[in-house]
Each structure stands twice: as C-alpha cells, then as structure tokens.
Amino acid sequence: SESTLRVDVGLLDHVMALIKELGLVRNQLAERTTQDETLALASQQLDRLTNELHQSLLKTRVQAIGTVWNRFPRIVRDLAIICGKKVEVELSGTATELDRTIIEAIKDPLTHLVRNSVDHGLESPEVRVASGKSATGRLRLDAYREGNQVSLEVADDGSGINLERVRQTALERQLVSSEMLSKMADQEVMQLIFAPGFSTAQKVTTISGRGVGMDVVKTNIERIGGTVELRSEAGKGTTIKIKLQPRLEERAP
Q1: Helix pair 100-116, 72-83: axis angle to 10 deg
Q2: Contact 115, 154 (CB under 8 A)
Q3: Is residue 153 within a helix (H) or strand (E), and if so which, with residue range?
Q4: Residue 149, class by beta-carbon neighbours within 10 Å (0-12 exposed, 13-18 middle, 19+ buried)?
Q5: How far apart are CA 131 and CA 121, in angstroms?
Q6: Which residues pair with 238 in a beta bridge?
Q7: Of 183, 181, 215, whose CA–CA distance to 199 is shortest?
Q8: Percentage above 70 pLDDT, the chain
C-alpha cells in the first residue's frame, strides 16, 4: 500500500493557522481554570495535544536536502564529459532538513553554482597536473545547521577567482569607475561578481554564460530570506556559502 501522500502546501498553511488559533483558546482556558482541578487537568491535556499536533505538522513540511544533493552527481558527470574534465563529487549533510518551499526555491540557484564550479572553477586535468594538483578536481556539497540557520556550501578545489580578470571585466562593463576600483580591497572586488550584468564568460555556451549570472542567484536566495557568502583563494578553490532561515514556526503556538 502507498505510504506517502501528496498534500498541497496551502492546506498545511491553513492547518497551521488553525493550530495557532487553538493555542490562543488553550491560553484563554488556562487563565480561567486555575481553581477547578478537573478543568485544570483538561487544560494540561489540551496543552500537550496542541504542542504534539504542532510538532507533527512541522514534520510534514520539511524535506531532507539529500533530495536535491542526489541529483548533482549525474549533472556533474555529464558536464565534466562536455568540458573534458575529471570531477569527483562529495556529498555531506544529506539528512539536513529544510522547509519544502525552500527546497524548491534553491534548486535552480544551486544548479547554477554547480555548473559554474565545473565550467569556471575547476581546471582541466593537464592544468591541474602542471600546477601540482591531482588530475581529478573535487566538488563538495555540504549542508549543516548553525543555530537557527541552515548553511549550504558549494566548494571546489579549482583555480579560485581571478581578481585581475574581475577588475578588468568590471571596468569594461562600467560597473565601477577606475578610481573606485583602486580603493577597493580584494574581498570587495570579489563581490563584484554578484553585480547585475557581470560575467567573465568568453562566449555563450550551453553550460554557462547563458544570461543567468550570479546576481540572479543572489537575488533568488535573498528572496527567501537567505544570504550568500563568497570565499576564494587563488590556486586553491572557491566556496559559496548560502545561509537560510527555514520558514518553520518552530516555537509552539
């Protein structure tokens, strides 16, 4: 027999609203039953049941990030063949849970980040060997909780971000003036890749340079209440870290 059931998220939101109203009624009842032992006992049971109902409903809205992570090894394998590269994918934190609506919202941004890592971040086997690296590049996808947030990382051990190329592109596209650029620290220059219209792609391909830049990734992440952090070191790789605040009412009503 079927062990799962598809339920519209709108219906779950409606049930959550009803549970909040139930919590208000419970609180009103608790204020009036302190002198009546029978009602006080019933109020305690209502409190327990309301909390259990709330926690059970929360579990129906979450999904493991593994449902997203598990689709990337094949995507990376196909991209690596097209790019003539060797890539090994490492998946961590597959059991980390997020709200289903957030899971759906981050699929496309994550796919873009993975494509960028394979196409731009990781070098060809020949270049890697010449620089003293393994011929096979590594792409790591990790998910973990940090307090009330969930962090997702897409990291590669590639060449890192070429800051001089970023500076040149920013000037060519008139994103900043030469005077402003001369005063910017390396980390500030690195953040220019999130500027609208920024792209270092030499040509448009089916892999990257398709008109969807890092600014779109950042905008889509911020739309669901998240933030994007960038770390990169020349010759050692780049890490994109996404911090998300799950849209879960984790406190009991």
Answers
A1: 20
A2: no
A3: strand 149-156
A4: middle
A5: 15
A6: 156, 232
A7: 215
A8: 89
Contacts of 161 (CB under 8 A, 6+ apart): 190, 193, 230, 232, 234, 238
**Span 157-198, pLDDT tens digits:** 999 999 999 999 889 888 899 999 999 999 999 999 998 878
Helix (H, G, I), strand (E, B) or coil at 177: coil
Amino acid residing at 243: K
pLDDT digits (tens, 9 = 90+) for 46-103: 888 988 898 888 788 888 999 999 999 999 999 999 999 999 999 999 999 998 889 9
3-state secondary structure 17-58: HHHHHHHHHHHHHHHHCCCCHHHHHHHHHHHHHHHHHHHHHH
Triad 121, 231, 149: Cα angle to 5°: 115
Q: Please tell me the distance from the alpha carbon of residue 100 to that of residue 106, in angstroms, as a whole number.
A: 10
Q: Which of 34-43, 48-57, 208-217, 239-248 has the lowest mean pLDDT?
A: 208-217
Q: What is the token pair recorded at 123?
A: 């070098």
Residue of 196, 210, 229, 241 lying closest to 120 (CA atoms): 210
Torsion of CA 201, 164, 113, 73, to 10 degrees: 90
Computed over its alpha carbons, how large is the radius of gyration of the chain? 24
Specify burial of residue 109 (Cβ count, 10 A radius: 0-12, 13-18, 19+): buried
Contacts of range 220-229, beta carbons closer than 8 Å, 24 or more positions apart: 220/105, 220/106, 220/108, 220/109, 221/106, 221/109, 223/105, 224/101, 224/102, 224/105, 224/106, 226/106, 228/194
Judge contact between 184 and 166, C-beta under 8 A: no
